[in-house]
Structures are given as structure tokens and as C-alpha cells.
Amino acid sequence: MARLVSTALVRGLVRSCRAPSAAAVSQSAFQQFMNYSSGIGHSNANGGSSSTGVAADPDTHQDFQPTSKSPSMSFNDIVSQDIKENPVLIYMKGYPDAPRCGFSALAVKVLQRYDVPISARDILGDPKLKESVKAHTNWPTFPQIFIKGEFVGGSDIILDMHQKGQLKDVLGDIAPRVSKAMPHEEDNKLSMGLLFDLVM
Amino acid sequence: MRQKLQSALEASALEIEDVSYQHAGHAAVKDNANETHFNIRVISSKFEGQSLVKRHRMVYGLLTDELNSGLHAISIVAKTPTESGS
Known about the structure:
heterodimer; A: 200 residues; alpha+beta; 5-stranded mixed β-sheet; two-stranded antiparallel ribbon; 7 strands; 29% helix; globular; disordered C terminus; B: 86 residues; GMP Synthetase, Chain A, domain 3; 3-stranded mixed β-sheet; 4 helices
């Protein structure tokens, strides 16, 4: 079981880009691993949707697999790896398309204004991950946003940077990434009961 | 909490607002929705030259006890006197 947990956890990293159409996020962090296309104002148009967004298919997510397949990868390793490998990373409550906290939702909305790939992990899924991240940054609350390997702050700070135009400078050189797999159209219609509708 | 922040930061202005009611029913708020979410606005010259992250860390550091006992989230606005225009 431990093996399953840690492998699945590593795959629990969610990537999303500015995708105005909501995609399914109802699966737990243990199962899913989704990619969204880097849409620029319109929904996924690249076609070729995978059968499901679930991480069960290793071929689709080859480049997101950890190089070490050891099942005993510690959470600290996962956190370090996340930070290193993802130009824009947010540890949040819930998922970009189904945030479970107003602050997390706000942070995602701000980041989605920029055409950058956003990687996200739900820290509600695993208390150990939550504690690892907190210990890593010595920061007591979520969401926590990392840009280019550096902890930037929480939702207040991200919003402030956005309003001051600082976020544009920091994110400007991150290339929008075209994802390899997209959730099946039907997945989009799954329950979105946890979605908070915030008006910015 | 007010006293701690006020004295440690030598704040020229400090506003603390309990907005816990806005978050009642929130996933992480169990039974007691009181004193779990606050908006804090503080103006202090001690923030001079500090990045936002550092400023927030300063505030968090002063509220460790509260954060360990029920305080769940705080929105922080941390400005220097110059920035606030006062």
C-alpha cells in the first residue's frame, strides 16, 4: 500500500494552463494526473484527447514520470522535485478547476491570467505532503506558489504582484507548454460540486 | 493578537478584522467558525526594505501560537508608511 501511495502521489501533480472550459477534477490525488492544453482564450483545440485523464496510462505521461522509480521517495524529495521541475507550481487546496478554498481559487485565477503552464498539487489529499511543504517553506498556510524554483508567497502576495505588474515580469519568460494529453470530453461534465465561483 | 503585532512591529496603523463568518462551512473549519480567518492590515516602518514574503513571515512568526490553535488563515496587507501614503 505504501508503494501505491507514493507512486500515485508523485503522479498526483496536476498541470493546467489557461483553460477556460472546466475539466474533470473529481478524482482523488491518488488517481489522477491531468494535462490541459495551453489554450489562449479558447478551449482545447488540439484534438487527440486521451481516453481518460487518469494517470493509469504511463505512456501518456512519460516525461512527467520521476526518474527514480523507487517507492520510498520521501515527501521532501517530492516537494524538492516539484519545485525544481515546474516553472509555476502551486500547492493548493483542491485543484485548479475545483479549488476547495477561496484563497487557493484566487491564486489559481490570478496565475491563469498568464499564458503559462500551471502545475498544482492538492495538499488536502495527504496530510504528510501538507506538512512537508509547510516545513520546506516554513510557511503556515496554503496556497503556496513557487515560480521558477522559488517560493513566492501565498494568494495575497500573488494578487499584489499581479496588480502591480510584477507578476508579468516574473512569468514573462516562461514558455507556454503544449500538453500531451487532454481529458476526455465527457470527463468535463463530471460533478464540479466543489467549484467556487469567484468574481475577480 | 493585536497587542503582539502592535508592539513587535511598532505599527503606526493596525487593523484586524475577524472574517471567520465568511468561511463558515469551509472544508477545514470544523465546528467552531470563530476566530479562524482574519484580515490584517498593518503599517510599520519595520517593513521597509523587506520583500512581501519577508513581511508576511514576520507577521506569521508573531502569530505562531494562534496559528497552532484555531487560526486558520490570514489575509495580510503589510505596508510601510511611505507605501500607504500616510
